[in-house]
Design a protein that fits this description.
Layout (H helix, E strand, L loop, with lengths): L3 E4 L2 E3 L2 E4 L14 H13 L4 E3 L7 H11 L6 E6 L11 H15 L4 E6 L9 H13 L3 E7 L3 H9 L4 E7 L11 H7 L3 E5 L24 H12 L3 H18 L3 H10 L4 E7 L3 H7 L9 H11 L11 H4 L13 H4 L2
Parallel strand pairs: 3-4, 3-10, 4-5, 5-6, 6-7, 7-8, 8-9, 9-10
Antiparallel strand pairs: 1-2
Bound molecules: NADP nicotinamide-adenine-dinucleotide phosphate.
NADP nicotinamide-adenine-dinucleotide phosphate (NAP) binds next to strand 10 and helix 10.
């Protein structure tokens, strides 16, 4: 299995286990802790030793800290985020940054955070570069090993790099459906030695056999992730367009004897600039199925076949996360902006 080096001293496996799906309020379904830990153990045994979480995923840093404590001899790399509250941006100072980072250190039971991914909700509020500098000071002090971004467009990423912030990666939504990063951000990342850590590769689970040929689910979906990606599907041509993509992925999957999700993940790993896919797991079954992606190779014909379908599809407008930042957009309606205040 090929690990990808984000920095000379830091590498990640192709599949990172994402933990948003475990946060309180994400789903009405209770997560079975034994099955979850078994999933992480299984992934780690196959070289996928990295977890992704955030300061604002309620309860999750603490849960990962408990997992780490229960596995004292196992290597577990953890990527967290620093997402200052939208309504507090004007007040974010060195003390605020240090408080949140110290809290992550304590919850994750470590003395250094492997990777901190920074997000700034409103570019129009001054301070983003200065606050990134505070994070960099904590990196120099040894509390953070590496810095990255999340959900940041190309021009702001450029500005942070030009300000000397040593970014090794950026976490963005990128999938066969939402290919916004391909236009500008991925080329910038490649030029500046950064990698893309891609979430949404399964559209919250929609890119799976279970939805091929299924009717458009009306009303409430099982979890917040599906609700979020149902909006992305609308931006990409709607339910019928999703079915065309599922049929194409499904045909390729059948030729290789794998699942639709494996083809969607491998397509993502094959795109220029990709460092890893971040996949949400709540239990062992999905982790076991995802391991098949590590051994899957798509042929040039598979890629050409998929491209011929994808090229016909519309996409969310603008650059990375622009639509989600628009307060008038449907996406904005489901985002929670001030979780650090309530997540103390
Ligand atoms: N920076 C951000 O704003 C942001 C936003 C979203 C997500 N993320 C990160 O990315 C992670 C992944 O979230 P996502 O939104 O990208 O979700 P996703 O990975 O596209 O979808 C997760 C869902 O797919 C299912 N699944 C996993 N592997 C599968 C397989 N091989 N076959 C079929 N189904 C499979 C899981 O099922 P089970 O639940 O049954 O295991 C889960 O419900 C999050 O946990 C978080 O760490 C970051």
């Amino acid at each position: 299995m090929m690990r990808r080096f984000l920095a000379p001293d830091y590498s990640v496996p192709p599949v990172i286990a994402g933990a948003w799906q475990l946060s309180e309020g994400h789903s009405s379904r209770t997560v079975d802790r034994a099955s979850l830990f078994a999933a992480w153990d299984l992934l780690a045994a196959n070289g996928c030793d990295t977890l992704d979480c955030a300061d604002i995923y309620t309860g999750v840093e603490t849960l990962i800290g408990e997992y780490r404590a229960a596995r004292p001899h196992q290597r577990v790399q953890v990527h967290t985020k620093f997402v200052p509250d939208r309504d507090a941006l004007a007040q974010v100072d060195r003390g605020y940054v240090t408080r949140i980072i110290d809290r992550s250190l304590e919850r994750l039971r470590t003395d250094a955070l492997d990777l901190v991914q920074f997000h700034w909700w409103r570019y129009e509020v001054p301070g983003m570069i200065e606050v990134a500098g505070f994070l960099d000071d904590l990196r120099r002090a040894g509390k953070i090993r590496h810095l990255a971004l999340t959900n940041t467009n190309t021009s702001q990423t450029h500005a942070l790099l030009d300000a000397g912030i040593p970014l090794v990666a950026t976490q963005v939504q990128y999938s066969v459906l939402d290919r916004r990063p391909a236009a500008q951000l991925a080329p910038l990342a490649q030029r500046r030695g950064m990698h893309l850590l891609c979430y949404g590769s399964l559209a919250g689970g929609f890119l799976d056999h279970a939805w091929r040929g299924a009717n458009d689910p009306q009303g409430t979906l099982e979890n917040r992730s599906l609700t979020k990606y149902r909006l992305v599907i609308d931006d990409c041509g709607g339910w019928n367009a999703l079915q065309r993509v599922l049929n194409t992925l499904g045909d390729i999957a059948e030729r290789h004897g794998v699942g639709i999700a494996n083809v969607a993940q491998r397509w993502m790993l094959d795109q220029p600039g990709t460092g890893a896919v971040i996949v949400g797991f709540r239990g062992e079954a999905s982790a076991r199925r995802t391991l098949q992606t590590l051994a899957l190779t798509l042929t040039p014909d598979d890629h050409a076949h998929l491209a011929s379908v994808l090229d016909e599809l519309p996409m969310p407008a603008g650059d990375v996360y622009d639509a989600e930042r628009d307060p008038q957009s449907a996406h904005a309606g489901i985002i929670k902006y001030n979780l650090n205040a309530t997540n103390a």
